Please model this.
Amino acid sequence: MDIKETYSEAEKRFDQFRRGMGLYAGPLAGLLVYFLPRAVAVPLPIPDAAHRLAALMIVMVIYWITEPIPLAITALLGPILAIFFGIGKDKEVIASFGNPVLFLFIGSFTIARAMEKHRLDRRFSFWLLSFPMVSKSPYRILFMLGTITAILSMWISNTAATAMIFPIALGILGTLSSERRDNACEGKPHYATGVMLMIAFAASVGGIATPIGTPPNLIGIGMLEKVIGYKISFFQWMQFGVPICLVMFLILYLLLSILFPSHGLNMSGSSDFIAEQKKWLGKWTSGEKNTLIVFFVAVFLWVLPGILGLLYGPKGTILTLYNERLPEGGIAILAASLLFFLPIDRGKGVFTLSWDDAASIDWGTILLFGGGLAMGDLMFKTGLSLAIGEGLLSLLPVESLWGITGLSIALAIVISELSSNTAAANMVIPVVISIATASGLNPLPPALGATLGASFGFMLPISTPPNAIVYGSQLIPIRSMMRAGIVFDLIGFLVIWGGLRLLSPLMFLG
Model:
C-alpha cells in the first residue's frame, strides 16, 4: 500500500497560518491584558502579581495551542519571564524543574528507549498476534492490535506505541485482498479506517492506566502533591486507572466494529505475514532479555508499596520506610541505570543502553512538565487560579463535588482537542483544584477528572500525536475521525465521571 505520512498541501497551509497567527497574537494579547486597567482586562478581584501572571499566561496558552515555537521552549520561557516580571522568586520558580516526579519521567522514558532499541515491543506484539485464530478474523485482529497498543502505552509514550504498531497494522492490511486505500477515502465506513483509529485511540486509552502512561497523569500527581500535599502512589493510581481503561477499551472496540465493519475480508495472507515477521525477529537477544529484566524490576518495585499496604496497613512501619528510601522516581532511575550495567558483549564493553541512546529520549516533554508545574504553582501562590475558579463558578450553575468534577472533565477534553494533552493538563488542573478548594470541596476527584480528560483528544489530527500519525496513512477521511472522535469523547466523559464517582469512595478519594 502506498502510504504517504504527510499532511495535504491545504493542511500544511492551515498549519503555517495557525503558527504564524499565534506567534504575533500571543504577545499582543498579553500586552493588552497587561496595559489595560486591571478591572477591564481581568474583571476579577486579583492582586497585582496575579494580573501580571494573567498577561503572561495568555501568551503561554495561545502559544501552547498554536505552537509557533516548540511547546518545551514555551514552558521554559514562562517561568523565566515570571521571574523577570517579579511574579515569583528565582529559586522557588526554578525548583519545580527538580520535582521528584520529573525523575519518574526520565527513568520510564529511558526504559522505553531500551524496549524500542532492542525491539522488545515488536516481539511482544507479534507474539500476541500469532495466537491461534487471531489472524483468521478481522475483528480479532482489530481487537488484538488495540490490545497491544493499549498495553504498550501503559508503559511507554502513546506516540511511541502508535509509531511502533502503525507499520505492523499497515503490513497486515496490505495482505488483505479487499483493502484498498481509495475505497477507504471515499467516505464509506471501511475496516482499514477502523484499524487506524483503533491504534490511535487505544494508545490514548491505554495511557490512563498507569501514572507513567501519559504526561498528564504525572502532571496531575505532581500538582496534587505540591499544592495540597496529597500523594497518589503508583498502585493507588492503577486501582482506578486500570478499570476505567478496560471499560473505555471495550467500548472503543464495540464502537469501531460497528462504525467500520469488515465486509467479509479475505484473511488468507495475514497469518503468513505475522509468521514471517515473527520469524524475522529470530532468537531472543541479550539486549531483549536485559531490558525485560529491568522492566519487571521497575514494575515490581512500583507496585510493591500497594502490596505492603494491603499486608501491613497504610501506615505500617515497613511501608513508611520503603516509601522514604525508595520513592517512585528513585525506583525509575535505579531501574533505568541497570541498563548501563547489564552487558550485551562484555568483551567489547557494549551494554544494554548507551548514553547516545538515552540522549534521544523525549527531553522536551520533561521540560514541558517542569515549566507547567512552575506556572501552576505560581497560579496558586498569586491567587490567579482561585480568581479564575470563582469566575467560572459565578458563570456556571455548578456547586456540588460531582458537578464540578463533570465540569473539570469537560474542560480538559475540549482544550485537549485544540492543544497537546500535556498543555491541556497544565492549563486546566490548577484551575479545577482552586474551584474545588474555593467551594470547600475535596479537590481530588475534580483534579483526577481533569487529568484523565486531558488524554481524551480524539476528534482531530492535531489533537494528539497518535491521531496525526495514523491520519498520515491517508486511510482516514477527516469526517470519519471527527464522527468517531465526537462519539468517543462523549462516552469518555461519561465513563471517567462514572468511574470516579464509583471508585473514589472505595479508595477514600472523595
